[in-house]
Specification:
Elements lengths: L17 E6 H11 L13 H18 L9 E5 L7 H5 L15 H13 L4 E2 L6 H14 L3 E5 L13 E5 L4 E3 L1 H8 L6 H8 L14 H11 L2 H6 L7 H9 L1 H11 L21 H11 L2 H10 L12 E4 L39 E4 L7 H14 L8 E2 L3 H14 L1 E8 L9 E9 L10 E7 L3 E2 L8 E2 L6 H12 L5 E4 L2 H10 L7 E3 H9 L7 H9 L6 H5 L13 H28 L3 H21 L2 E2 L1 H26 L8 H11 L17 H9 L3 H20 L16 E3 L9 E3 L11 H7 L2 E2 L4 E8 L2 H10 L2 H9 L3 H10 L8 H15 L4 H8 L3 H14 L1 H17 L1 E3 L5 E3 L8 H37 L6 E7 L2 E7 L3 H13 L14 E6 L2 H4 L1
Parallel strand pairs: 1-2, 1-4, 2-3, 4-5, 9-12, 10-15, 15-16
Antiparallel strand pairs: 5-6, 7-8, 10-11, 11-12, 13-14, 17-20, 18-19, 21-25, 21-26, 22-23, 24-25
Catalytic activity: DNA(n) + a 2'-deoxyribonucleoside 5'-triphosphate = DNA(n+1) + diphosphate
Pfam families: 5_3_exonuc (PF01367), 5_3_exonuc_N (PF02739), DNA_pol_A (PF00476), DNA_pol_A_exo1 (PF01612)
Keywords: DNA damage, DNA repair, DNA replication, DNA-binding, DNA-directed DNA polymerase, Exonuclease, Hydrolase, Nuclease, Nucleotidyltransferase, Transferase
Amino acid sequence: MDLSVAAGYSMPMQKGDHLFLIDGSGFIFRAFHALPPLTRKSDGLPVGAVSGFCNMLWKLLTDARDTSVGVTPTHFAVIFDYSSKTFRKEIYDAYKANRSAPPEELVPQFGLIRQATRAFNLPCIETEGFEADDIIATYARMAEKTGADVTIVSSDKDLMQLVTPNVHMYDSMKDKQIGIPDVIEKWGVPPEKMIDLQALVGDSVDNVPGIPGIGPKTAAQLLEEFGDLDTLLARAGEIKQVKRRENIVANADLARLSRQLVELRIDVPLDLELDALVLEPQDGPKLVAFLKAMEFGTLTRRVASACDCNADEIEAATVTAEWGDAAHGPDLDTDAATAKTEAAAKDTGDAAAKAPASPAKTAIAKGTGEATPADFAASRIEAFAKAPIDPSKYVTIRDTATLDRWIADARETGLVAFDTETNSLDPMQAELVGFSLAIANNSENPAGLDIRAAYVPLTHKTGVGDLLGGGMAENQIPVADALARLKPLLEDPSVLKVAQNLKFDYLLMKRHGVTVVGYDDTMLMSYVLDAGKANHGMDGLSERWLNHKPIAFKDVAGSGKSGVTFDFVDIDRASTYAAEDADVTLRLWMVLKPQLASMGLTRIYERLERPLVSVLADMEERGITIDRQILSRLSGELAQKAAAFEDEIYELAGEKFTIGSPKQLGDILFGKMGLPGGAKTKTGQWSTSASVLEDLAAAGHDLPRKIVDWRQLTKLKSTYTDALPTYVHPQTKRVHTSYSLASTTTGRLSSSEPNLQNIPVRTAEGRKIRTAFISTPGHKLLSADYSQIELRVLAHVADIPQLRQAFEDGIDIHAMTASEMFGVPVEGMPSEVRRRAKAINFGIIYGISAFGLANQLSIERSEASDYIKKYFERFPGIRDYMESTKAFARENGYVETIFGRRAHYPEIRSSNPSMRAFNERAAINAPIQGSAADIIRRAMVKMEPALAAAGLGEKARMLLQVHDELIFEVEDEDVERTIPVVVSTMEQAAMPAISMLVPLKVDARAANNWDEAH
């Protein structure tokens, strides 16, 4: 494989050329913070950032040169910051003054990364006195003048001011192009106004002041109204809002200063002209020698294969890494996260540059050790399973000075575990009792094994209901003071927050005015890794991965009548319990994060799981309105119908009995009446499960049928019409369900407290319950529902030509199936024939047996067997899919959705035939149901940005997800604008990851209640 496109290319840059400018500083930042720590086996040299940088650069080069997936660069350069001392410091001394020195383990990697760049045969560019962004801006504008195209590989908002029709950005971590529409979608202004917007907003990370109190939305509105910053400042007196007007007038000079700081220079003196950035061929032996020195075994093999050279015949290079004085290093708290640590990095020669400070350690790299993601993950598992957890070292923080030190340490480390303690499991009503933090002492132990944890009590009380002696416990930080300190940390995207079941903490903190940004969730990591294999609660994960059994909640708060809420737990006992939660969570992150990478599941976690945390939390916070009068009336109707059924049941049974008693019912059915099919449970009682009663009803017995109907009515009454009003929030007056992301094997969401996903829609009573879910005055409920999505997914994965064509042509899929199977014309087809085809279509997805289909259609088992056989004859691809899926599951223990999500079925190899058959049916269904679940997850993640881009962000709010349906509350006058945005987003949700072989179709309606909208 020849990795050069421009070998021998020496002509001046011209129209048609394509320049790639890599934000090398941003690459270092991402490589260091996004990946687990990594040290070289032979000597312990930290090389995690180097490894991440090399892998990202190699992927970028190979992907960019693959003409089938992207553009082909003719010119290429990697740009770095020289140091933190730039011309901007002369303008404003406080610029970036809030940055801390880089972590010690990163310092030696700056020079190694520059050497890596040269080993890739790429220009490595930096200029004293300027930031990398200024160099990128200068090259971009120069290239644009020649007519060439430019791709800036970065996601840094500071570079978005450079975007034009010929200059794009590319976020390599998200595989996302950033053009003019994307800038507008995110910030509300086009690229040419980004400088003014940033001048107004400022940047707390870079210490750019801006105008206090002006956020991005307000800034965008002001620029839309006044055009630009100068006009805004000149006409500030016209601003209607008094406080905003006074604020802008008073801080006009700060805005002008901020504009000087954020505006990128396009006149940086350059040592290398554009023509010198031509993309040269890879020097395979040179790159392999460097990678071998770093002991990056997997990447070494990939490069050697691509460059057609023999790695075994190439000696590892001699590479010197130095620990310089960290005070001379860069600050690493933003996207531009590196600076000069070498004295001679401008030339593109082979000589290793030296760090410009006092040498503390020097490591000579020469070796061929292996350091694959799988090796690293395995070493982490082993290390943390052996690492002891010592609760005696936990700290209770009772004063703001100590809390400030912990928060400063968390900022410096860039990683902190966070957990809240409350007096309730309902995040919408829970009070914040305290919170815990855990930080890894990386300076002492880069492997992350040295973890310290603390608890911050806030509202613990003394006494339980003792009005005379009870009250607030002493020596606690006031909630407002603690949150004021915690808020900047939790909202800082440069510090990774780690939590277990973060959605609870996220929603709780949002109620307190804090929006958590930059996070990982260990529960969701476990779910991605092991859905179907184990539960994902913290206690179970701790025992599994850390060999440690955490303190049980009941051991500190008691249980039953003697139990108390956490705010009445003694602070010393509470501290041990809470600090342990944070400690365990951080350790779990250390163990689980590398496994995502080693198993190739990072993309699933980052695109399907983690983004949903904030989406679902927002939906839960919004809630939905219900009409109590409708529910009260329905309760009365259901009670009357249930009473009528009871009378009929007593008459058929010949006596009165407690219908809800399984024992009494079993004795009536199988003892007194002697009905067939009776089987006793382990307790010796007759089984009266739903399936037993359904089988008896299908056999023509009236009493079991009446019992089934009675159970349905009484369940609707107790679960919904009676219970729903009790869930109305006392302040919001709405019902707030709670969604679980990690409770099903296939990826489908579930809801609880109350469960809104199981309201039956096929019965008149169930539909009536949906009429009680209403819109507020001036709004409509909008329901958008995927049409037959699982059949469409089946047609895609099994590649069934007849089904694909039917969906393409918009034909009734069940009528088409009936026509194919029974030779009946679609036109004028009897409803019974279509019903049978529909039962088979959906039954096949769930692996239905002849016995099950016979019961469903009330036909003989032999006839049902003939139907299934004929179905497979007409659609052989479905049989092939089912058999290949079962074979894959038996071999691997799991199946995958079309996006790569795994659903594990470890019992598919069971010696128990019944267990094995159940797992086979589930494995067949999981890729279908799971892919449908993934599609709606993707739609939910994309929905709010799509609505915001259409100017509907505050006017159309996503409230509920019920299987294949999304429910929104939309202002009356915006319904017509909202429907096409919602439909388009849902129908295109699989893109660009998957191009479906069949079109997805969404039906959307708006009405005053859920039933009418559905």
